[in-house]
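2 proteins. here.
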Amino acid sequence: MRDAASEQPSVTTDKDILRLVRYVATHAPVQMQRAAANVTFQAGDDRPARHFPQSALDRACSLGLTVVDEGVVRATAQASAFLRRALLAPEEAFQDQHRVIEARTVSVEGARQTVRANQLESPLGAVARLKEKSGQAFLPPEAIAAGERLSADFTRAQLQPRLTMAYEPRLSAKTRGKPCGTADLCDTALAARMRVGRAMEAIGPELCGVALDVCCFQKGLELVERERQWPARSAKLMLRTALMALARHYAPSASAGRRNHAWAADGYRPDAGDLVVVRPQAPGQPRP
């Protein structure tokens, strides 16, 4: 018995099936009337009827793309994935149905190049696409930039657990069985670990965990809620709070380092007990 997925039609040979599934998916529910070798679809009173071969409807139903119930044709959950694969390039059809490609301009060795980036590559990219009820983005740009910077530092710090065997030769002089320590790390990794540590201190112990899970360990919001036993749709609020604190850590406001001056009233004199007198010390004389 052949698998149903292997029998899915291509764009060039079964265009009737593609047009039928696309029409049903965009105009559901559709009323159907059979007439000889053709079927007539009527999506509404004010819309013209469409005619499709009966064989195309039978093939779509056998593949699980459409269902017929008392003269009404509806598209199944597999129809959306089938349409995305059929309308994309054949060499990237299966990959593009699970990703959102965006063109970006990056600097590579001083030259600007246009690359394609997948917005759904990380859970942070999926959260960045969320919208408020007002239509504004759920995460501001500075919060997204802070999360990407934390992820980059985490990768440079070599804190990601290794899941496969390392085949590169070891150049360090550690003995067999001794775990790799900070002496085997380069200066770049050590500096990145210090930056990650300072970022966690800035976020705080209550919120640093969700930032690490989403930005560094690539966990989805639903997985974070299940692991931490949080209420539904609460992880995105905690993540936004953590990333806003992280954004202030990476880019503090101009008033954060400004020193405030206080003016004393007329006749004010400091208390002599608050003053510390430092006398010069002769060479060789012990400290008091």
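next one coming up
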Amino acid sequence: MSVTPTGDHANADPRRWWGLVIIALAQLMVVLDATIVNIALPSAQRDLDMSDGNRQWVITAYTLAFGGLLLLGGRIADLVGRKRTFIIGLIGFAAASALGGAATTAGMLFGARALQGAFAAVLAPSALSLLTTTFTDPKERGKAFGIYGALAGSGAAIGFIVGGLLTEYLDWRWCLYVNVPIAVIAVIGALALLHDRPGHAGARLDVPGVLLGCGGLVAIVYGFSEAQPRGWTDAVVLTLLAAGVVLLTTFVWWQTRAAQPLLPLHIIKDRNRAGCFLTMALAVIGMFGLFLFMTYYLQVILGYSPVKTGLAFLPLTASIITGSTQISARLINRVPPRMLMVPGMILASAGMVLLTRMTADSEYATDILPALILMGLGMGLTFMPVFSTATAGVAPQDAGVTSATVNTSQQVGGSIGTALLNTIATTSSTAYVTAHLTDPGGRARIAREAVVHGYTVAIWWAAGIMLLAGLIAGLMVTTKPPKQGAPAEAAVPESVA
């Protein structure tokens, strides 16, 4: 049926909400895989005889491939067709997960995690662009993006809970195997429920753009991940970061000359879209730092089990879902997006500031819980309008690459956040130990206090970064709420080739 979306329910696919369930399931699988392995890492390290220096590759191999290949994945979705790319991504992700679960050596696990990241880079943009082209009525779009934003924001926290349960009651390998049944359900659902206009058969892939853009992103993500073990002044780290900047600068220059660019520059020249990309990257820097510190704080300092650690994140997850589906989704058609994003970042920053008061003997209920709830509400308020605004008004042939750019800002922000804040924390901890060597409190006590001191210093930085995200959202995202009954600016005839 070749119709122009008008927001009229008569023209909408009656099974679109079931389609959203499938899209959301795939997105949840991709996002939680960035953290589900965190809690399983000590067990996997013992089983496969990984060194302390190499164990980070279980996490880094995934984020590196995911963050570096997202732009390519988005463009493939536009060229080949989003539904087809979505299904290919799901099958590849399931196969890579099975390979990782069956790993007999550390190298095999690292390779499987990199493969997972590569297929996630194909899957995530096609999922978001399918959502963008399926829901064009503003009211429905608000609800759909509320659910999607909730999963994107809470998926990492859900990963901790699922990872804790699987590691404690089954085996660390199930943190990877669990993706196989999820992917099978999603493939069957996608074949039955999802619809898409065909890909652009005559279009060609911008190969120089792929090499420059993906190479630059990989160099930067890799550089930040290596800053954690090597230090910021290490020659390898500086070379990688410099190479990444040079490659990305050359990439931007090439995109102005390419006949069919990998990333059409009008997508990032749009003020509102650029503001959303920056807000997302900065917000995630703070959020991933929090996940890293709270996992270690709860397990190492407070002595929580993996399951108890996962459950401790549950209020954060519930708050993100509440902020996204019950507040943002209800207000997105009534208020400008920045009226949700700015208060959201202020709330999240306030939650971070509360966490700076934690000590080696803090109580979860009084010192940690209120901060997690504030943080969750703030992220929920922010993520949903970011996804919705960044993908509104994009021509169908650019929907995949625009979705990929949102995901890229999230992945690169996560990589930078983990490395940057972890480096700040370890440096501060070392300085604390040096300053308190003569204290009579005992070496073990000082060591614990030093770790917590490092966390609180880094969390102050995270709070500041989140305030900066709010400032950018307030200054750059100036779009107004969509008019009721009008399509969500993506009212492009389905016959567009």
